[in-house]
# Entry
Amino acid sequence: MSYGWLPGLPIVDAMTPAVLVLTGPVTRDEVPGLCEDVRALLGAGGSGVVVCDVAGLGPPGLDAVELLARLQLTARRSGGGFRLRDPTPALLALLNLVGLSFAIEGEVEGEPEEREPALCVEEAVEPGDPAV
# Structure
C-alpha cells in the first residue's frame, strides 16, 4: 500500500522549526548578517518559526538585547515567528528590565509555564462607567 509520501518525513520537516544557534559575544557588525540568516531560514519553508538557541551567547548585555530584538523584528516583518531556546535567567531578567519581556513571553522553549493569578486584585464597575 502506498500513500504517496516521499522519503525524509516531509510532514515532520514542515513542522520542525528552523534553529539559529548564537555562540559567543556577537558584535554589531554581525547583526545584519544574522538578520539575513533569519530571513533565509523563514524563506526556506518549514514551520514559519525560527528558534534562536542562546545557550552559548555568553554573559548577557545590552548588545545581546539589541540583537535579539532585531532578530525578532526581522522574523515578524518576514511573516514568521521567533522563539528563544535555553536563555539564562540573567538574560530573561535583562530582557524584562529593558521592557522586552512582552517580546518573548510565551516564546521561550524549555521554560515551564509559571503564570499564577494575581492576588488581591478586585475589579469594580461603577454605574455610568463606559464599556471597555
